[in-house]
Amino acid sequence: MLQAKEGYIVFLAHLRNQSISVTEGEQVRQGQAIGMVGNSGNSTMPHLHINVFDQMDDPFKAEVLPFVFSSYESLGSDGLWIENRSSLPKAGTFVRFHA
Q1: C-alpha radius of gyration, the chain, whole number
Q2: How does pLDDT run across 2-57, given as a tens digit for each residue?
């Protein structure tokens, strides 16, 4: 979990075991690698779940907040990468990010 300076919490699930490269309390910057995508849980391939919560002081009362990625590329059916801005990829889409 990452706490943004605005107070919300970014939760990243299924990072590869022992791949996290930041430490508790460390300030991270946009584009910084924090870990590798893993294959934990009931899945057949590496993937990442991302949720943004309003707080984690009381996880039972935390609300999920909407978010979008500022930019990413998605793999088109023709095998070419398509640039996307201020949106979310559809489920099952292959994406890549550039630092």
Answers
A1: 15
A2: 999 999 999 999 999 899 999 999 999 988 999 999 887 778 888 888 999 999 99
Distant-in-sequence contacts of 84-92, Cβ < 8 A, 24+ apart: none
Q: Where are the domains of the chain?
A: 1-67, 68-99
pTM over cut 0.70: yes
- What's the order of all strands across the beta sheet hosting 95-96? 81-87, 69-75, 95-96
Dihedral sign, Cα of residue 99, residue 87, residue 67, residue 13? negative
For residue 49, which of 20, 91, 17, 83 has the smallest C-alpha distance?
Answer: 91
- 75 residue type, one letter: L
From CA 53, how far away is CA 3, in angstroms rounded? 10
Maximum Cα interatomic distance, the chain, rounded to a whole number of Å = 45
Residue recorded with tokens 């398509």: 82
